[in-house]
Each structure stands twice: as structure tokens, then as C-alpha cells.
Write a structure and sequence with these properties.
This protein is α+β, with helices and mostly antiparallel strands. Helix content is 45%, strand content 10%. It has 2 domains: 7-65 and 202-305, Beta-lactamase (3-Layer(aba) Sandwich), CATH 3.40.710.10; 68-198, Probable Glutaminase Ybgj, Chain: A, domain 2, CATH 1.10.1500. The protein contains 12 helices and 7 strands. Strands 2-1-7-6-5 form a 5-stranded antiparallel sheet. Helix 2 crosses helix 4, helix 4 (118-127) crosses helix 7 (168-179) and helix 6 (157-166) crosses helix 8 (187-198). It binds glutamine.
Amino acid sequence: MEEKISTTTLEEWLENVKPFAYDGQLADYIPALAKQDPEDLAVSIYYLDGDCVHAGDVESCFTLQSISKVIALALALIDNGEDYVFERVGMEPTGDPFHSIYRLEQHRPSKPLNPMINAGALAVSNMIHGQTPDEKVGRLLSFIHEMTDDHSIRFNSEVASSEFETAFLNRSLLYYLKQHKVVTGSVEETLDAYTKQCSVELNVRHLSKIGALFANEGRDLNSGRQIIPKHFARICKTFMVTCGMYDASGSFAIKVGIPAKSGVSGGVMGSLNGFGGIAVYGPALDSKGNSVVGLKLLEMLSNRYDLSIF
Ligand SMILES: NC(=O)CC[C@H](N)C(=O)O
């Protein structure tokens, strides 16, 4: 794509998709997320040459939720290598909701089908090196600081506690995984690290920069430093295509065709080789847990600028 998208165009498009926010619901199963403003909307595009255009409530911060699963996977691969990680977590999409438990019983030896569903992401969090949950989360935060070049990024402790206190299904998944030796150590400590990981808070500009770094084969856009090995960046982007939008990944691949990961806070991070990173925030979700406005905007951008990788 030669033509860059202008701020004015992005602003217009954001106005056009705004009404779709009323078709969605906030993720209130994590009580603190119900406090988000359903009308908050923002989009940011970070090109590989370092140019960034954005529109909407760019300073609005939101928590990563499931988008953190891609970043945690990159760190777990760096910490443990590919063989260790994929002995414990599979590579196949499920077609099930992200918190589904039922396929765990259908495979022997039992392991989560992929790192983008909660079962797989809990196992991945458990693999991140660190003696304590805070050490693991501290390492993940440093990794995010390196990727965004913003050392002020933290996790939101209210959102983390709110999820920790109500995450009975994630606890069940962890106990199951512990029984089958997919995870080690304390279930409560792994859940603590996972809920803090999901609560890392940033804005669309940060998120589009992370998407651009994945698109840039894991290299920092300014210094060219390899922050994620190219092969691991590729693994992460492939999971974004096959499982990044939960059980809507197939239709998203057809309609949009951009490797992307969503989270129940309403964020979506896209990563497009040869182009850069795209991030959208709109907290109203569809029935699968994807941002209604995010999907609509990405579909429009993809069609207009022919962005599909397929
Ligand atoms: N889909 C999501 O964003 C889910 C993340 C959330 N923290 C959970 O485990 O339920």
C-alpha cells in the first residue's frame, strides 16, 4: 500500500462506526470492566517507518486482557524455547469460546489446544520465568516497556483484583491443568500472575506500536534491535490468524484478513507484515467477546486499503 491513511480519514471513519457501539455489551463478568465507558473509541496505526496516525480517545487507557496472551507467549518462548512450550500447549484452533473447559478432557495426554484460549494462556503464564507472581509480571512489564519505549506502563490493580476474586472458571482450568502436570506450583500464584498480566494498561498508540514490532519481525522500529526472535514473532502472528479472535477467527480471516488479537476490554491489536500495527479500542463487545466497533473498523480499513494477507 503506497498511500498512507490521514488523520482526517481515520476521524471520519471512527464517526461512521460509532453507532455500532450500541450493538454491543461491556464485559461485566469481570466487575471492574463494567465501569468502562461504552462510548470510548480510539484507533491508531503505526507504520513500519515510525509514522503514527491516530484518532478518537487516544489517551484512554484500557487493559490488555486476552491481547496479553500474545505478548506472554513471546516471552514464554524466549524463556523456555519452542519445544518446552509446545509440549504443554497445542497449536490448533478450537472453534470454542475462549473460556471453554470441555476439550481438555478430549485429548490424551491432556493439554490445552492453543495459547490463545484461557486454558493455554494460563499454562503459558505459568511458564514465564520468575520465582513469584510479581517477578513474572515485572518481567512481562519490562518486556512491554522495551516494546513500547514507555516505562510508565503498569497493571491496573483494581481490574486485576476484580478478576482474581471472581475467576472461578479460570481456577477450575488451572486445577485441571495441575492435575495433568501441564502447570506446576501454586494455582493461586499462577492466577495472580495471569490476572495481573491481563490487567496491564495502555492506550491504542502503545498497542499499535507493539503490533508494528511483531510486523517488523520482532525488531524495534527505531534501533532495529531484535526484541523478539523473528521465528517467535512469526509463531505469535500465526496464532493471531488461527485463534486470535476466539471462535470468530475464521470469519475474521475472511472478512478482514489481518493477523489480530482481541481482548474483552474491547481492544484489538493487528499486525501486518510490510505495513505495521493497527490498534482499535471500543469496549462494547459482540457475543463472542470481540469489540463491535473494532471489527467494523478493521473490516472497513482492510477492504478500502486491500490489507488482507490472503
Ligand atoms: N477474552 C479475554 O480477553 C479474556 C481475558 C480475561 N482476563 C479472562 O481470563 O477471562
